[in-house]
């Protein structure tokens, strides 16, 4: 049995079973998930999953260096790409946030070291029995959001941060009845 939210489609099941809640430490994968969580804001996760391959192609497989160097021509190209979410502020945020991640990599050695440092590089396993118990935000996601906004990150509210924490396995919010709970 898996978490109830993942039963809507095969794509959701695959994501749940093989990615969601699994520890992720590769900066490129972290950046991909951050961009996707930003793009998801106000939309369903299934919409983002259905467009994920298009995002990968459009954003050069989320290579941080490349995205950080996108210019106005690339922005226009992205805005004209019907295969992705064409929200100008979200696209600009992805480019801007890539630039900030490069600065973090310079300062901390990696985005992984910076972000996972908020939990001292430990996973928080939550004992949720039902989906209604799973929070949309926590004090920690509030804190991380504030600190990232202070650094200049865009589209990084507490709800987005918490969803990102779940996606990268920083918090394990698989229900206790889920076969994928560690």
TrEMBL record:
GO terms for molecular function: DNA-3-methyladenine glycosylase activity; metal ion binding. This is DNA-3-methyladenine glycosylase I. Pfam families: Adenine_glyco. Zn(2+) binds at residues 3, 16, 174, 178. It comes from the Bacteria. InterPro entries: Adenine_glyco, DNA-3mA_glycosylase, DNA_glycosylase. Transmembrane segments: none annotated. It comes from Enterococcus alcedinis. GO terms for biological process: base-excision repair. Keywords: Metal-binding, Zinc.
């Amino acid at each position: 049995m898996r978490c109830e939210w993942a039963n809507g489609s095969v794509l959701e099941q695959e994501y749940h079973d093989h990615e969601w809640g699994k520890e992720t430490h590769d900066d490129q994968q972290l950046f991909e998930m951050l961009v996707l969580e930003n793009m998801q804001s106000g939309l369903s996760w299934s919409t983002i999953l259905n467009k994920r391959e298009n995002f990968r192609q459009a954003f050069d497989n989320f290579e941080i260096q490349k995205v950080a160097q996108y210019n106005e021509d690339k922005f226009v190209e992205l805005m004209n790409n019907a295969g992705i979410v064409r929200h100008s502020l979200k696209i600009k945020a992805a480019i801007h946030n890539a630039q900030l991640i490069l600065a973090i990599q310079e300062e901390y050695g990696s985005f992984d070291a910076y972000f996972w440092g908020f939990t001292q590089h430990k996973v928080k396993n939550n004992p949720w029995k039902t989906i209604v118990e799973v929070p949309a935000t926590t004090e920690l996601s509030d804190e991380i959001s504030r600190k990232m906004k202070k650094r200049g990150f865009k589209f990084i509210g507490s709800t987005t941060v918490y969803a990102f924490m779940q996606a990268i396995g920083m918090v394990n919010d698989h229900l206790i009845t889920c076969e994928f709970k560690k």
